[in-house]
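Form 7-S
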Amino acid sequence: MREDIPEWLGKPPRRGTDEWEAWLAKWRAYARAELKDTAADDPEFDFGLLTMEERWQVALALEIRKHIEQGRAGGPCPFLQNRSISDLLHASVVAWQVGRSVFSTEPNERTLLADQWVTKRLNPRRRRIAHGIRYGFLAGLGGEPAEPAWSSADYVAAYEAAWNVGNAMAIDSDPR
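Output:
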């Protein structure tokens, strides 16, 4: 939770209570007006109450989920869009590759371009995140418990997001 909550607002009460709802309404009004925080209305980002690192991890999870599904559907690779290269874009392309591998294992021009694009832009952080996406997805698909191999926050976030998608696929395809 973020540290810059004003004193006049006080500490947040227990979630799910009437006090929480009243406190949250005050917080959201303050965050929108004073902090110009667009996440104040977004439940995915806990109404703006997350730290910047926690927001990045949520954004990573959303990108992974979106692009694994896009790859599974045979959609376009995200690097073809005109965006600056970032760790999130790199993770999106890796997630697309993972989803694409479920759609088809046959290499084509798009998959070869994506492989080259990912390889050329690897750095230690992106390598950890890519590993988390690939192995998390496989573990989830195989019905294995979520057991990330590394403890860095970015790796764990990528692993858990991909594991959730893989696990959901395994549950959906289970004939029982």
